[in-house]
Amino acid sequence: MIMRKLVVFFSCLMLNSMVLMAQDNGGKIGMGQLIDEQFKFAEQQYKVLARNVPADVMPQTYNAKTDKVQTSDTKWWCSGFYPGTLLYIYEYTKDPEILKEADARLGILEKEKHYTGNHDLGFMMYCSFGNAYRLFKKPEYKTTIDTAAASLTTRYRPAAKVIQSWNASKKWGGPVIIDNMMNLELLSWVSDHGGDKKYKEIAITHANTTLKNHFRPDFSSYHVVDYDMKTGKVVQKQTAQGAADESAWSRGQSWGLYGYTMMYRFTKDKRYLTQAKNIAKFILSNPHLPKDMVPYWDFDAPGIPDTYRDASAAAVNASALLELAQYSDKKDRKVYVSAAEKMIRSLASDAYRAKLGENGGFLLMHSVGSIPHKSEIDVPLTYADYYFLEALHRYKNWYLKS
Fold first, then answer.
1. Per the residue annotation, which of 24, 56, 67, 120 is the catalytic one?
2. Residue 111 located in a structural domain
3. Where does the signal sequence lie (predicted)?
4. 196 assigned to active site
């Protein structure tokens, strides 16, 4: 125990000295150094988080009032982000302790490849086992991914041409949420890697239906579109986690940006690229986007500027913009990379990134789950950390070399 405390203490001293050096340099260090510092910090911070989470559950968020990490079972939609984040850390640092923790969490998650309770198999199984297979190419990982894709397709509704997000309830008969765009990566990847071709066909059909029904003329997105699943008719359009039905819930815009950029990667359908660029324009030119480019929880939230930020939306945006830049001309590429870099620098600053040993072990502070539901307000969230590190990897791999 004493040795562990000493390791954390000296790690903290080292990281703090690195931060002070950066501040002495005017706070504008090179992106290579910034990325290196973030991963070294993540390596130590996620060991803190690991000690705070029992072996049979996943971290969800942190309650500062109780100084406790809140956890979830493996059926929670965010269950794949923790092992996925560990794998991103290992990919950069090659720390065996981090890999051991990732393997343990993959072990408790693997059974969810059969889950059909909602649409979140992509978040759960591709962000985790997808990264594991990318790094290690173990056949059992691919089998897990293939099985998860088959499970996800059980939620496809041919008459409505969508994957149903949640089961019917008193509020909605056939809800489809913009978040569902993210789960299409699982289906598309499996089809492109020896799996059933119908999976990608379903992904494309869902993306097309969402393109038709989810977006307003200014390219902002509703959160929920409720369908009559027997006829495909749109029953209602709402924004459940945003400020109002006609408001632009920030993370919803991020899911759309990332989702259509990713679907262009798999299909090269110019409609998807155009849609992604239009969503990017809505976000980046929005008068309510703060100077540090970390959005308020809703672009139309009451009380701006005195309301909550959502670091998770900024992290998703940064990662998405870095990929969108890959498919853009020189002018747009410069805009997207510059914006992503500013988002990354903001998230890496003291305003959003925790100090070693604090924040329950999570990297980023100040994310928002759902204000209307009084859930996860101004707290760390696993997917904020995940997409932040994904953005760092993308910047390193695509833009430090060029």
1. 120
2. yes
3. 1-22
4. no
**In this structure, are residues 145 and 130 in contact, taking their beta carbons and an 8 Å threshold?**
yes
DSSP 16-80: HHHHHHHHHTTT---HHHHHHHHHHHHHHHHHHHHHTS-TTSEEEEEETTTTEEEEE-TTSTTTT
Q: Is 4 domain-assigned?
A: no
**Within a domain: residue 10?**
no
Rounded Cα–Cα distance for residues 156 and 77 (Å): 18
Q: In the chain, how many domains are there?
A: 1
Per-residue DSSP letter, 354:
P
Query: Is 120 assigned a catalytic role?
Result: yes
Catalytic residue among 73, 103, 146, 179: 179
CA separation for the pair 160, 180 (Å, rounded): 15
301 inside domain = yes
CB-neighbour burial class of residue 148 (10 A; exposed 0-12, middle 13-18, buried 19+): buried
Task: Identify the domain containing residue 67 by its residue range.
Answer: 42-400
Both structure tokens of 130 = 């997808």
* Binding-site residue positions for substrate: 120, 179, 239, 251, 255, 370
Q: Per-residue pLDDT tens, the chain, 402 aa: give them.
A: 444 444 444 455 444 444 444 433 345 899 999 999 999 999 999 999 999 999 999 999 999 999 999 999 999 999 999 999 999 999 999 999 999 999 999 999 999 999 999 999 999 999 999 999 999 999 999 999 999 999 999 999 999 999 999 999 999 999 999 999 999 999 999 999 999 999 999 999 999 999 999 999 999 999 999 999 999 999 999 999 999 999 999 999 999 999 999 999 999 999 999 999 999 999 999 999 999 999 999 999 999 999 999 999 999 999 999 999 999 999 999 999 999 999 999 999 999 999 999 999 999 999 999 999 999 999 999 999 999 999 999 999 999 975
Cβ proximity of 92 and 99 under 8 Å: no
Instruction: Write down the residue that tokens 């747009």 correspond to.
Output: 332
Peptide bond into 59 cis (omega under 30): no
